[in-house]
Amino acid sequence: MESESPDAPPPKKLALRATxxxxxxxxSTSEGRxxxxxxxxxxxxxxxxxxxxxxxxxxHKARFQDAPELCVARVQREIDSNGELRDGLxxxxxxxxxxxxxxxxxxxxxxxxxxxxxxxx
Length: 121
Prior knowledge:
- The protein is an alpha+beta fold.
- The chain has one domain (20-104).
- Helix content is 27%, strand content 25%.
- It has three helices and four strands.
- Strands 1-2-3-4 form a four-stranded mixed beta sheet.
- It is globular, with a radius of gyration of 21 Å.
- It starts with 19 loop residues before the first strand and ends in a 15-residue tail after the last helix.
- The model has no long low-confidence stretch (mean pLDDT 82).
């Protein structure tokens, strides 16, 4: 068993920054709405575009007010499954993915806490 010299500097630890995903806006295209997101973490920031097809909105599979959150969740799933994302990545939400996401959200346990009744003193 080797022992370290008392004068040796401690091993360097890599400082890992938490990954953050920021919504940067959207653009209407012929395919639907293209949502721009910036992914920050280790390394250079990456820009990712997630497109939700127009049909998803007309069929009520997605709501305009929920779309940025849907896109952030989609990018987070990509990060969780692939680790790193390349800059300029373009993702397209399928109608099936939107159905699966909505189903998962419907069956998620409620995070709301019930309020304790106030005592009358």
